Amino acid sequence: MPFLDRKKFIEEGDLVLVYVSRTIIKPIYVKSGEHFNTRFGSFPHDSMIGLEFGSQITTPKDRGFVYLLQPTPELWTMSLPHRTQIVYSTDSSYILQRLDVKIGSKVIEAGTGSGSFTHAFARTVNNEGNLFTFEFHETRYEKAKEEFLKHGLNNTIITHRDVCLNGFQIEGINSLDADTIFLDLPSPWEAIPHLKNQIAINRKVGICCFSPCFEQVVKTVECLQNDGWIDIELTETQGRLFESHKTMKRDVDDAIKRLKYVKEKQREGLELIKAGKHPRKDNNNDSGLKEKDYGFNPFGRGKRIIEGEEGFDWFNVTRLESEVKTHTSYLVFASKMPEPKRII
Ligand code: SAM
């Protein structure tokens, strides 16, 4: 299945992420006879079967088009049905590299929630690793289990469990031998003491606790210290988009020249009207001159000036994009060294 392996052609039953626009990506399971409906038109699933992932398809009258994308954890995060708050790719990608998660890693995750991060973990540890994920809400557990099965996450075992009360032990497995722990729970400090017998002893273990409130962070840090975790660090990811532009320098002399120019144009227009002529049509004196040719910088409307164009004075300015999603939670990282260096 595409979350773990790549696939070239779309087949009946495949999950396809239909890209309608930058903000609309819809997951569908391809089923012969069904249609995917958008405001641009209806796309029969039959027309998708046999196409390569990434193909563009159009409606019969070419009124609209969509792209049929291969699922990836990042696209799934953008399109999945939300049952809870989710971890977005800005955080998950940072956490994965910070915890050094790789093919073959063994991961414990709680809670599973909507399974957003689960897909990223599953893809990263791949077929050689294991992911043990825990969720105590029954409906969310059932839904996630069904999705993981459909998505072929065969390295993932989901367990219906309150990990704060009953820990991480799985029947038939002595120790989960995990080297990576991710806790996205309201009270990670109640779950951390249960990790003792489930983490690897022959290699470094990393943990990340994802908490929106600072009070949670304080309790988590105390608990990690008491349980012998070291290198405890708090970080947060802040997404910022900086746009840099050039802005035209404006001075008073230019403003005065501009006002005189506008007044002169008005006067010419009024004269044409008095003479019974159309001021726009008949005053067709578009000489191709730009404002700079008249000796001033254009304020407001004028002939089109390209940003940074020679003949004008420009400032370099930087603007912050306010729409970008930024801090979501605090990330507390810590680690344990392999025994015998381990404190406990
Ligand atoms: N990380 C998930 C994602 O990316 O989709 C979202 C996790 S959601 C914010 C937190 C989940 O933890 C909820 O689904 C909740 O039911 C579950 N949860 C809370 N306390 C729990 C506990 N003690 N044991 C297991 N699951 C728990």
Automatic annotation (TrEMBL):
Family designation: Belongs to the class I-like SAM-binding methyltransferase superfamily. TRM61 family.
InterPro entries tied to this protein: SAM-dependent_MTases_sf, TRM61_C, tRNA_MeTrfase_Gcd14
Alphabetized SUPFAM superfamilies for the sequence: S-adenosyl-L-methionine-dependent methyltransferases
Protein name (database record): tRNA (adenine(58)-N(1))-methyltransferase catalytic subunit TRM61
Any one of the GO BP annotations: tRNA methylation
Function text: Catalytic subunit of tRNA (adenine-N(1)-)-methyltransferase, which catalyzes the formation of N(1)-methyladenine at position 58 (m1A58) in initiator methionyl-tRNA.
Quaternary assembly: Heterotetramer; composed of two copies of TRM6 and two copies of TRM61.
Stored Gene3D superfamilies: 3.10.330.20, Vaccinia Virus protein VP39
Keywords: Methyltransferase, Nucleus, S-adenosyl-L-methionine, Transferase, tRNA processing
Enzyme Commission number: 2.1.1.220
A GO cellular-component term linked to this record: tRNA (m1A) methyltransferase complex
Primary enzyme class: transferase
Alphabetized PANTHER family for the sequence: TRNA (ADENINE(58)-N(1))-METHYLTRANSFERASE, TRNA (ADENINE(58)-N(1))-METHYLTRANSFERASE CATALYTIC SUBUNIT TRMT61A
Primary location: nucleus
Organism: Pichia californica
